[in-house]
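Friendly challenge for the regulars: who can give me the C-alpha cells for this chain first? No prize, just bragging rights.
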Amino acid sequence: MTEANRTTAPPDAFHFGRNWQRYVERYLNPTRERIARQSLIELLEADLSGRTFLDIGAGSGLFSLCAYRLGAKRIVSVDVDAESAESCRALRTSVGDPPHWEIIQGSILDRALLERVALADVVYSWGVLHHTGDMYTAIRNASQLVAMDGIFAIAIYNHARGRRLDSTRWLAIKRTYNRLPRSAQIASELAYQAAWFVNELRHGRNPMRMAREYKRSRGMARRTDLIDWLGGYPYEFAAAEAIVEFCERECGLRAEKVLSVPPTGTGNNQFVFRRVG
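First reply, four minutes later:
Bragging rights claimed.
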C-alpha cells in the first residue's frame, strides 16, 4: 500500500486515540469545552451556524462537539484511529446522537475517503496532518474537501532550528519512543513530565499552577499534551512560509490568517486559508 493511499495508521504510529480517551474521561468538563469553543471562534472568525464542518483527525471529538454547539448544520468527524472514533461517538452520544453528526474512521491519505466525504464550508484539521506520514499529500487531500469560498483551518508543527532539541532531534526521540516496549514508554513519559516540572521551577514558575491553567490553551490538559508531544509519531514539520506557499501554489487556496511561533519554537503554526476560484 502506497503512502498516498494508506487506509490505516503506520504500524509504529503513536496511539493517539488512547490518549484522547483519557483526556475525555479525566479532564473534559464544561469549562474546557467553553474554552475550546471560544478558541475555535477566534481562529475561524466565522459563524458556523447553518454551515457544514469537516473535522479531519477529530481526536477526542471536542472540536466537532464545539461545531455542534455553534449550530453547524452538518458535522463529519474523521479519524484513522479506532479509539479516537470511539471517543467521538461518546461525545456525540452525550448530546443525544444528533443525526447530522457523522463519524468516519478513515485516513485522509485514502482516495476512497475523498470520494465518500462531501465538500464542507469549513475543513478543520488542527495539529493532525503532520502525523500522517505524508504531510503534503494529506494537506492536498484535505484541501480538496473545502467548498468554494470555504475555510481551511490547519495547524502544522514549525521547523524549529537553532536550539538543542530542534525538530530533527525530536523526530528521533519520537521514533525511538514508539518502538520501545510499553514499560519503557511509561518510564519515558514519567521522565519527560519530571523534566517539564523541573524546567518550570528553574524558570520561577509554579508547575502545579501552570498545569491547572493549561486549559486556557484550547481547553487542553497539560499531561495529555505532554504525552501527545513525546509520542506524536509520525512527525513532520515545516516553516510557516513553506505551508503558505504550498497551499497557495498547489491547492488553490488564499492565506487569510497566519499565526506563527518563533523560529526556534517547536509548536504549531496556525493557518486559515480560503478556497478561491
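Residues 167-231 form one domain. The chain has a mean pLDDT of 94. Your move, everyone else.
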